[in-house]
Amino acid sequence: MQVIAVPVKSLERTKTRLAPVLSPLERAVLTLAMLEDVLDACLAQETWEVWVVSPDDAVGEMAARRGAVVVDEQGGSLLSAVREVEAKVTGATGRLAVLLGDLPLLSAEDLTAGLAVDAPVVAAPAFSDGGTNLLVRRPATVIPARFGRTSFAKHRWAARRARVECREVRSDGLAFDLDRPADLARMLVSGRPGRTLSTCLEFGLPERLASGERRTNEGA
Asked: What values do phi and psi take at 53, rounded to 5?
């Protein structure tokens, strides 16, 4: 069994660090756009099942429409979502790849290369904070999952303690997660075709960022 699990927060709580630039509705729309781009890469992996783990109905509806398996997870945190999936991916030969859903530059080729690496633990670090954007484990609980700042180093340390090999994979597509206002500018400069870029252009972000526009009313 080989599963790519993409955990996604409730759209009401998503991407709060973009609040200076985007309204709550815009952040929700952008989250769905990024997820669609990530699913494009995931669904191209023919030998892997694709699961989307989320408490949000809108996320689940979109994922089901795209052909992913939807796992309703009400714990609310990334780690609780991962544990939900770990319990379902059993067996010594099972592989679980946890992939974050905010990687708008990810290509199918990037993901294929990461999944092709043969080791008990494979991890892709984030450019921004040393987090982990992709974690592949065989078996699914060979080391504990950790996410957030510096989690990549924690995964390497956990692999050393468990005496299993941990291999690093790097590519722009796996390393760039869109979390902060500065990341919006980088997304626009990349020019990578996809739903994320189209959504940013529909929001008028080139003009808004150039003018230094900042939101002053969170409810707007």
From this structure: -110, 115
The confidence score (pLDDT) of residue 4 equals 98
Whichever domain contains 130, its CATH number is 3.90.550.10
How high is the pLDDT of residue 218?
45
Go through 69-90 and write b for each residue having 16 or more CB atoms within 10 A of its CB, e for each that does not. ebbebeeeebeebbbbbbebbe
0.90 surpassed by pTM? yes
Q: How many CB atoms lie within 10 A of CB 43?
A: 15
Q: Which two tokens stand for residue 33?
A: 């756009």
- Neighbouring C-beta atoms of residue 141, cutoff 10 Å: 14
| pLDDT tens digits, 165-218 | 999 999 999 999 999 999 999 999 999 999 999 999 999 999 999 888 766 444
What is the percentage of the chain residues whose pLDDT exceeds 90? 80
Does some domain include residue 220?
no
Cα–Cα distance measured from residue 22 to residue 203, given in angstroms and rounded to the nearest whole number: 9
DSSP state of 40: H
Q: Which residues pair with 54 in a beta bridge?
A: 72
List C-alpha distances in Å: 169 to 17, 65, 133, 135: 27, 30, 10, 10
* pLDDT (tens digit per residue) in 18-43: 999 999 999 999 999 999 999 999 99
In a domain, 215, yes or no: no
Is 71 part of a structural domain of the chain?
yes
Print the domain residue range for 52: 2-210
What does the alpha-carbon distance between residue 56 and residue 53 come to, in Å, rounded to a whole number? 9
Amino acid symbol at 199? T
